[in-house]
Specification:
Layout: H1 12-28, E1 36-39, E2 46-48, H2 52-57, H3 64-68, H4 74-89, E3 104-106, H5 108-115, E4 121-125, H6 129-139, E5 145-148, H7 152-158, E6 167-171, H8 180-194, E7 199-206, H9 209-222, E8 227-233, E9 245-251, H10 257-272, E10 279-286
Parallel strand pairs: 1-4, 1-6, 4-5, 6-7
Antiparallel strand pairs: 2-3, 7-9, 8-9, 8-10
Helix pairs in contact: 1-4, 1-5, 1-10, 4-5, 4-10, 8-9
Bound molecules: S-adenosylmethionine (SAM).
S-adenosylmethionine binds near residues 5, 17, 172 and 173.
Length: about 290
């Protein structure tokens, strides 16, 4: 497997995924009861945007870079705040760093660590040893979190349901394998059978619209109640091998999430989709039973 998330860290697709994740965690944190974050494709957790990989593609400039340079309405700014606070916490002003300057970007594990509370627990799976080593260094001696060398798909069998019976499972595979879409749909059905009350957030790329349609239909056929689909098109699809957008299937979303994402992703589309063809769709695949 050649995938290295460091090339893409902080790009528009990370922005969409991490904003949604942060909104879910903000909602879970409204109640004192502990919850669990299970991130089954965790990545390195921490990215140097001036490093070799991110520096080579510069994708972050059209993602987090553009967001930090934009102005939003107070309502949108409030919805972005938990995620942006996690980003800013990694980029403190210092003797060599201007206030507001961006050098480091948190992956989903560090965003989750920043937004969870002392009573919450986190599980991160990462199978690539080198990436897992970087993740362990990023997580450090954090007693709330475990980094596992476990295949994320297997973790759905081994770790569901979590003892807290509240929480979120993030499914964010590299999509290097053409069978990733059907595997993700099957894994969701199986995981939901084990833990029907969990929130599941499944990220997917929009390149090949037929693959996306087939995935959407597979999820619809599964008839899992309360399943939301979000599509963020940065531009009209031109070639099936170029990322033109991304989506998230979210099962059991907080009741606030659909409206929040319509508002905040709409504002982000205006900033990130610079050629005017950006579009956001938020709709139910299966509503509440
Ligand atoms: C898209 S990246 C994850 C990005 C991360 N979730 C974030 O938002 O910052 C996918 C990661 O999953 C890892 N991976 C691939 N297959 C895996 C598997 N079966 N189990 C666990 N991790 C896997 C890859 O090495 C890669 O680091």
């Amino acid at each position: 497997m050649n995938y290295r998330h460091a090339f893409h860290a902080g790009n528009f697709a990370d922005v969409v995924k991490h904003v949604a994740l942060a909104r879910i965690l903000a909602y879970l944190g409204r109640k004192d009861a502990p919850y669990r974050v299970i991130d089954i494709h965790a990545g390195a957790g921490f990215y140097d945007l001036a490093g070799e990989e991110a520096g080579r593609t510069g994708e972050w400039r059209g993602g987090i870079g553009a967001v930090l340079g934009a102005t939003f309405t107070p309502e949108v700014a409030a919805l972005l705040a938990p995620w942006l606070d996690a980003v800013r916490a990694l980029n403190p002003a210092g003797p060599d760093t201007a206030p507001g300057a961006l050098r480091f970007y948190p992956g989903s594990p560090l965003i989750a660590l920043a937004l969870t509370r002392p009573q919450d627990r986190l599980l991160f799976c990462e199978t690539v040893p080198e990436v897992r080593g970087a993740l362990e260094a990023a997580v450090g001696r954090e007693p709330r979190a475990k980094v596992l060398a476990v295949d994320g798909w297997q973790a759905l069998h081994a770790y569901l349901p979590p003892k807290e019976r509240r929480g979120v499972v993030l499914v964010d595979p590299p999509f290097e394998d053409p069978h990733e879409f059907p595997r993700m749909a099957d894994a969701l059905v199986e995981a939901h059978r084990r833990w029907s009350g969990g929130i599941y957030a499944l990220w997917y790329p929009i390149k090949d619209v037929r693959a996306v349609d087939a995935f959407r239909r597979a999820i619809e056929r599964a008839r899992i109640p309360k399943t939301l689909n979000i599509q963020f098109d940065l531009r009209a699809v031109r070639q099936a091998d170029a990322l033109s957008g991304c989506g998230l299937v979210i099962v059991n979303p907080p009741f606030t999430l659909a409206d929040e994402l319509r508002l905040v992703l709409g504002a982000l589309a205006r900033v990130l989709a610079t050629d005017g063809t950006g579009r956001v769709r938020v709709g139910w695949l299966t509503p509440e039973r």
